[in-house]
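Incident log, support desk, overnight shift.

02:14 A customer reports that sequence design results differ from what the structure should imply. Their input is reproduced verbatim below. On-call engineer (initials T.W.) acknowledged and began investigating.
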């Protein structure tokens, strides 16, 4: 019994350390993102959309991109953030048409085109889901400074594994340049207000 409690305690500490590490990473990156160096965020990518079409960042020129990186099997954070993105766009009225919501998978192994197709429609009729080869996903995640990794808490043979990943909503301008990030938990009201202010400029 004591050994079991010990194991649970160790597991909890390991979990806390990992959570603290991710939190630190998020804060550090948020600071970098909001204090300059903006040119370093974003850039060219080639991915496959949820209809199976190969796309690049150039396909979205002329519209602001509102981008979230996650995975469709995410039990909590991703659905919450995608719902917030969608609610924000709904609040913006006609101006929302100048914004393209994008969901980029960090789990290309499971997030197939067919699977993404079912998923993005749950959130917004205009949301585009993007996936690709592991290398394509690695490159776009690197360009946006997105951290992602298979959760160490999931067994190697567990097909229901979890992914750890950073959680920001990125706003890019109509030329694909970085504008700002919204941290996880930002309200639809805040997101809508700030996007509206940005796209009017
Ligand atoms: Ni998630």
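02:41 Re-run completed on a clean worker. Output:
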């Amino acid at each position: 019994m004591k050994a079991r409690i010990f194991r649970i305690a160790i597991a909890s500490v390991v979990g806390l350390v990992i959570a603290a590490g991710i939190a630190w990473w998020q804060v550090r990156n948020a600071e970098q993102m909001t204090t300059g160096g903006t040119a370093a965020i974003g850039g060219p990518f080639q991915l496959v959309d949820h209809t199976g079409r190969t796309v690049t960042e150039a396909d979205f020129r002329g519209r602001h991109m509102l981008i979230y990186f996650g995975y469709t099997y995410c039990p909590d954070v991703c659905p919450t953030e995608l719902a917030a993105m969608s609610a924000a766009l709904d609040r913006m009225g006609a101006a929302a048409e100048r914004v393209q919501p994008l969901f980029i998978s960090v789990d290309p192994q499971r997030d197939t085109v067919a699977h993404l197709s079912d998923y993005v429609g749950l959130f917004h009729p205009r949301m585009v889901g993007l996936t690709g080869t592991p290398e394509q996903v690695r490159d776009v995640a690197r360009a946006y400074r997105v951290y992602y990794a298979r959760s160490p808490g999931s067994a190697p043979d567990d097909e229901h594994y979890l992914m750890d990943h950073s959680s920001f909503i990125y706003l890019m301008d109509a030329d694909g340049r970085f504008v700002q990030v919204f941290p996880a938990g930002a309200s639809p009201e805040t997101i809508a207000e700030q996007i509206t202010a940005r796209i009017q400029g």
